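Retro notes (design track)

What went well: tokenization of the new backbones is finally stable.
What didn't: we kept losing track of which sequence belonged to which structure.
Fix going forward: every design gets posted as structure first, then sequence, in one message. First example under the new rule, 232 residues:
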């Protein structure tokens, strides 16, 4: 598995999504509406790439008295070498990740954080060089509005601003240990069981795209190149 995981890290989030679509995953593993906030400006030429197993965190509203409560801060129990995936309640306007959490995560060997929600203290993350992917940012802290309820539990991340109807973009499930690949294009989740097949199909897809690119640059046209190499 380690060899295939190393191979997985060689591919972009786009290449991996294409492979997952071919495998019948309806959302292509894509977790929508999440962008890279760190690294970022003022060092605008820097980028980040994450490829690591998910350490999941479920947030609930602060006034939720029925959901479990954690006995320790979730950053203090993070698994080294993992990416922290935080799911905040839909519509949350406060941040659920800040500069102190980045410091703690780095001290414990986490490789980055992906937040279905908001972050803050952007300058601190960027100075630390810690990869942060989120749906937005905020000036507000976490405590008054939401709280962590569970770690290493299955998450169902719902696309922001959409209702779950027949025409809506499907939710993305993230299990603890699933592989998260995040880069400047976006964030995708790869089930552990699909890693080998994704690497195989992404390798084929890259080779096909290279042939298409060569012909397109030679002036042979996009349509003709797609038909020749992609069959459509």
């Amino acid at each position: 598995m380690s060899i295939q995981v190393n191979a997985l890290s060689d591919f972009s989030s786009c290449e991996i999504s294409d492979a997952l679509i071919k495998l019948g995953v309806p959302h292509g593993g894509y977790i929508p509406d999440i962008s890279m906030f760190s690294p970022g400006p003022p060092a605008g030429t820097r980028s980040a790439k994450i490829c690591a197993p998910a350490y999941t965190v479920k947030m609930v509203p602060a006034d939720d008295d029925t959901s479990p409560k954690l006995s320790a801060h979730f950053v203090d129990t993070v698994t080294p070498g993992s990416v922290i995936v935080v799911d905040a309640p839909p519509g949350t306007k406060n941040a659920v990740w800040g500069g102190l959490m980045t410091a703690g995560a780095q001290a414990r060997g986490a490789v980055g954080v992906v937040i279905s929600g908001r972050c803050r203290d952007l300058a601190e993350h960027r100075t630390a060089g810690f990869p942060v992917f989120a749906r937005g940012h905020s000036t507000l802290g976490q405590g008054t509005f939401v709280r962590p309820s569970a770690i290493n539990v299955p998450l169902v991340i719902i696309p922001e601003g959409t209702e779950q109807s027949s025409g809506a973009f499907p939710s993305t499930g993230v299990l603890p240990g699933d592989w998260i690949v995040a880069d400047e294009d976006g964030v995708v989740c790869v089930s552990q069981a699909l890693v080998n097949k994704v690497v195989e199909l992404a390798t084929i897809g890259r080779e096909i795209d290279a042939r298409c690119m060569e012909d397109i640059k030679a002036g042979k046209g996009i349509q003709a190149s797609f038909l020749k190499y992609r069959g459509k």
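Added context from the reviewer: The helical segments are 2-8, 13-22, 99-107, 122-128, 195-217, 222-229.
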